[in-house]
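A favour, since you know our structure tokens better than I do. Would you make up a two-line entry for one protein for me to read? Write everything out right here, beneath this request.
=====
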Amino acid sequence: MFSPVESAIGALLIQCATTSYIWHSGKVIGFSSLINGIFDPNVENVSIVSGIIMASLFVAYKIPDFSPIYQPVASVDLLEHQVDTSFPLYVVVSGLLVGAGTKFGCGCTSGHFLAGVSRLRLRSIIATAVFVIVGIVTVKIAGNGAVCYTETSNGEIVPTNCYVYDENFSIFQNNKMALLSVVFGGICTSYILIPILAKVLVTNGGAANQKTSSVTNSWFLKYLTGVNAGFLFGLGLFISGMVNPTKTIGFLSILTPSRFDPSLMLIAIFAILPNIVIWKKSIPQTKSELQVKKPLLTENYSLNFSNTVDLKFLFGNVLFGVGWGLYGVCPGPGLIGALGFNQWDGVYWLMSFLAGSWLAKKLN
């Protein structure tokens, strides 16, 4: 179902998360790197994952309408409510390809699409174009996605459009207060509360020549920043529908109009466009600006400025696009699925992702 209001709200939450995190920690949120760092935990990884777990619990208990529906998107018949219950080989293949693709292609949807395009990096724009186009072609060739039918007045069953527009905004109306509260809260924590705490705690700790206190305050704020970013980013993924494979497959079904769902286009409008404007003024755009613009909680920004586009890079993003198109899952939603919302399929995907990343690292 085309859900512009919910998708816009989810995008705004993602925008708050990504901007707050880069302002304070000096880094972008890259879920492929986050997952690959699972065996070498640090304050950034642990805090963001903690926030994502909190977001998952919030959705489950407060806004269950946004709990993802995981179905074998390669074999779904909504008329008969039948699905293929055999071992999901395509889930494993998807994880392997996405994992390898992120290594060769130097990032994923969060790193290239959300952060890289927000920074107007040429190679992130190229990467995004490659894996989106390849994902669209993969969905078309595989023929996956929902198949919907309707019954005519004379009893005939005919195919129909799966992604109709909800004119009554029923899901939004049912969850209006919760959704508006998290948006207001996300704006306050990201743009008011954490910046004030950063200036008060870190500055005062240093001014009083209390090095230990300053370090402790900085660690606490880094953790708070990560939890806030993980919580808002996780909620944004849930509310926008990005954690739902059928929603993503619907977005990639642009070549099959009856299955096309444009909802995720609003991520670009309400997350990336504001970031482009905000980051242009506040985030270093060149290496020389690293000496001028500083994050609040670290000494320098940790950003990649390379625009190298070679065959390996393009090949990696092609692999990513194929894997994304097969199952409709990228690293962020894949991590959420493995944390409990998708039971074994999520675990299969995540383990395959790690295997694909490891193999690509060996071959790199």
The chain has one domain: 4-363. The CA atoms of residues 118 and 275 lie 5 Å apart.
